[in-house]
Amino acid sequence: MADLAVTTNILGFLCANLPRWSRIRGNGLCTEEGLFRCLQRCISSLPAAEMATPGDDIQVKEIDKRASGQAFEVILAAPTPDAKGEFPLSPPKKKDLSLEEIQRKLEAAEERRKSHEAEVLKHLAEKREHEKEVLRKAMEDNNNFSKIAEEKLNQKMEANKENKEALQAAMSEKFKEKDKKLEEVRAKKETKEGCAEASEN
């Protein structure tokens, strides 16, 4: 409360001396430094009788004046016991709610709860659906991979079988050629031996 009274008194002092400040020449009154200098000039130009505010709640006394600056002492008056602040000390009491208002608030809270619950369930359902879709796609990819691998294996086995049959046919043909040559050699030998026996007789 004392801080509020001090602020009010300072504002009153500033407003009371505003016409005097507006007559002071110089630039930069809108800046903080310019306003402070203006305040210094006003206070230093006041006589001792005018140093108090209209309510005598604040007094400004000059302490020291030098070429480098000026010092002041601000004296605040003690707050009067009958002074009333603008803000109440205790918060305002809440008005009593009627049964209809309480019921309406409970229904609104129930609606919010149901809405939140529905939102959570919807989110969970979407998450489960996404998981099912991912699992289905993974199984489909796995099945496709297995099918492709099986087809490649069958093709490889078929190629091996064809190669084996071709190799066996080539070897069989080679053996037949060899047997044919052996038969020719044997026939020549027998013919030679038969000719030799005939010439001896």
Automatic annotation (TrEMBL):
- Per the record, where are the segments of Basic and acidic residues compositional bias? 173-195
Q: Keyword set for this entry?
A: Coiled coil, Cytoplasm, Cytoskeleton, Microtubule, Phosphoprotein
GO biological-process terms attached to the record: microtubule depolymerization; neuron projection development; regulation of microtubule polymerization or depolymerization
PANTHER family according to UniProt: STATHMIN
Region: Disordered; residue ranges are 172-201
Q: What is this protein called?
A: Stathmin
Q: Name one GO cellular component term.
A: neuron projection
Q: Which family does it belong to?
A: Belongs to the stathmin family.
What the entry lists under InterPro entries is as follows: Stathmin_CS, Stathmin_fam, Stathmin_sf
Q: Pfam families, from UniProt? A: Stathmin (PF00836)
Where is the protein found, in the record's own terms? Cytoplasm, Cytoskeleton
Which species does this protein come from?
Esox lucius
Q: Which Gene3D superfamilies match?
A: 6.10.280.30
Q: Name one GO molecular function term.
A: tubulin binding
Q: Could you tell me the superkingdom of the organism this chain comes from?
A: Eukaryota
